[in-house]
Amino acid sequence: MPHSANEPTCLGQNGIQVHAGLTLPALVDAIANAQQIVLHAAIYSNFAHNEIGEQLFCKLQDNSVHKLTIISLAPPSAWHREFAAVLRPSMPLAEVEALYERSHNWCLQLKQRFPERVQLISTQALAFQPILLIGDRLFAGHYAHSTLTSAEGIWLEFNAVQLGFEANSLHLRLQAGTPATASAATPEKHHPWMAALGRYVEECRQAMHAFEHKDIPPAGALQ
Question: What is the pLDDT, as a whole number, of residue 78?
Answer without folding.
Answer: 86
